[in-house]
Amino acid sequence: MTADELYKLLFTIRNLPAALSDEGERARLTAYLNKIVGHSYHQRDQLLLSEGQEAMYIYFLEKGFARGYYHDIQHDREHTVMLWDQYSFITDPPAFFEKEPSKLNIEVMAGSHLLFISRQQLDELYQTFPYAEVFTFRITSFYSAHFATRSHDLVSLSAWERYQQLLKHYPKIELKVTKKIIASYIDVAPQSLSRLIKANRCR
């Protein structure tokens, strides 16, 4: 199996190192990656990472959907804080890059196909291709921007506005995850989401 979509995304990142403007160097890098990138297919919903675990892998979602959530033990409630659609990088950045125990649960949905690489393999990649560290910088920058935007939206937008934003960013999400997950992402109870949808359809 190839990882063409992964490479297409990597090589369209802005401000790439000059070395990657050379087709020969790109071919050398992709040949190296082809040898180390793993593939997995998930027939059912499955946890890739649990709270307290060390994050040993970073994933690329070639097909499917995934989410990241915290479990509020006191109230026995899940708080979905991250959603990943096709062609996304999946990890818990502090747990993977800083080697901290994960505070996040990462769940991949049934029918998903993932590419993955271990932290050790990534370190060896950077030893061979030092300029490739730009990919880590771009991934961590994306996560920082995402959580800043999400924090802003949770305090600045109404629940209905958050729901509309969700539908805009993740078309047909209702076919990919349950309403309970959607409700937890926009920070409302499932019953409240049902009432919101019903009330706004009547307008």
Automatic annotation (TrEMBL):
It comes from the Bacteria. Residues 43-128 form the Cyclic nucleotide-binding domain. Signal peptide: none annotated. This is Cyclic nucleotide-binding protein. It comes from Mucilaginibacter paludis DSM 18603.
